[in-house]
Fold this sequence. Notes:
The strands form three sheets. Strands 5, 6, 7, 8 and 9 form a five-stranded antiparallel beta sheet that branches. Strands 1-2-3-4 form a four-stranded antiparallel beta sheet, with no helix packed on it. Strand 10 and strand 11 form a beta hairpin. The protein has one domain (2-170). The chain is mainly beta and 173 residues long. It is built from two helices and 13 strands. The protein has helices spanning 65-68, 161-170; strands at residues 2-3, 8-11, 22-28, 31-37, 44-51, 54-60, 73-79, 84-85, 89-92, 96-103, 109-116, 131-136, 142-147.
Amino acid sequence: MAAGSAAAVLVPSVTAAPGAPQTRVVRDAGGWRVDPVLLEPGARSPALAGGGRYAAVVYRAAAGPAAASGGRCRVVRVDLEHGRVGPARDVCAGGDAVVGLALGADGAVAYLALRRRQAAAQSCDGTTGSRVVALRLDTGATVATAPLDGVPGPLLLAPGPADRSSARSRRPR
């Protein structure tokens, strides 16, 4: 589930059926309203992240002609206030799978943990090709990529060292 700042929440589908909509629950002047949020036809295995005005949804694309031009998994940004789905961005193909997703505070950048499955013939002591990717959801541009030696998992955004030093300077003595 991804909670928004304006009394809106995005809830993943409770069915495993390909193409099942996500659900946006929003409070307006008339009370609570439920709206379907449709991804592309055949989309499956969605995962959500968010907070604030936007949520990110990563999903596996349908097999066949609809996915032939792009990757095997895609990510979209959903405007929780208006229920609009942004353009789908390809994030992996082949042996890759998204195993972690986080969304920056302003909803502009999605952070994806990508796991690359090794071929059966590959040595277990080689590099995996797994990585964390920062992707701008408005343009689809890669902001940064960090290779990983091991198998990635869920992501959580936290303050960096610069943020800790500024917090230390505000601490009462």
